[in-house]
Design goal:
Layout: H1 7-18, E1 20-22, E2 29-31, E3 37-47, E4 52-63, E5 76-82, E6 85-89, H2 93-102, E7 106-118, E8 121-134, E9 140-148, E10 151-159, E11 164-171, E12 176-184, E13 190-192
Parallel strand pairs: 5-7, 6-7
Antiparallel strand pairs: 1-3, 2-3, 3-4, 4-5, 4-6, 7-8, 8-9, 9-10, 10-11, 11-12, 12-13
């Protein structure tokens, strides 16, 4: 094997950079092309303190070329999560906003099903979703593209500052488009307009 990263170093790096707590690592595959990467098949993990849960996905850790031979730590540029099922409780949306602000590495979900729960009951689902979490220095952004009731949907959540967020929802086939701004006051209450 050319690359030999320990499961412990992979777990530690995922938790430090993306607040991902992977349940177990049964196998680590390596691909050199098109860019060096670690692949963790059949992965299940939790993001944050139970913000959302992902089951049966494949994680691709795109490694930084300059640090590829440092086996003690896993230094990566971005994380790709393929397929699988993502469950998020609507009550955890405010926690999701905090997690976006803490995220250090780019995170992309491809061809995932997102199941939204309300009080642990099924609320709605977005299938074949592409989720992109960008982490530029000033503005953090979560974008979800997928299918909702056989219609294309776009959900964009922007964290402009610690206390201000914007939510955009578009379903073009149903002629739905809305933008809501949320501001958190000093008491921690959220107001939207």
């Amino acid at each position: 094997k050319l690359l030999n990263f320990s499961p412990e170093s992979v777990k530690e790096s995922l938790e430090n950079n993306n607040n991902i707590k992977i349940r177990n690592i049964s196998k680590i595959d390596y691909k050199i092309f098109p860019t060096p990467r670690l692949i963790l098949p059949n992965s299940s993990f939790v993001v944050g303190e139970g913000i959302f849960e992902v089951n049966n996905s494949e994680l691709e850790i795109i490694l930084n070329m300059g640090e590829i031979l440092n086996f003690k730590t896993v230094d990566y540029k971005k994380l790709l999560i393929h397929q699988g099922s993502l469950e998020i409780n609507i009550n955890n949306i405010s926690k999701l906003l905090k997690n976006i602000n803490k995220n250090k590495k780019k995170l992309i979900f491809k061809k995932n099903n997102i199941i939204f729960l309300y009080k642990e009951n099924f609320f709605f689902e977005i299938s074949d979703a592409l989720i992109n979490l960008k982490t530029p220095s000033k503005k953090k952004e979560l974008t979800i593209n997928g299918n909702f009731l056989n219609n294309k949907i776009l959900i964009k959540l922007e964290s402009k500052s610690k206390n201000k967020n914007n939510l955009t929802l578009k379903i073009p086939e149903l002629d739905i488009e809305t933008k809501v701004s949320f501001v958190k006051n000093n008491l921690g209450n959220i107001n939207g307009f």
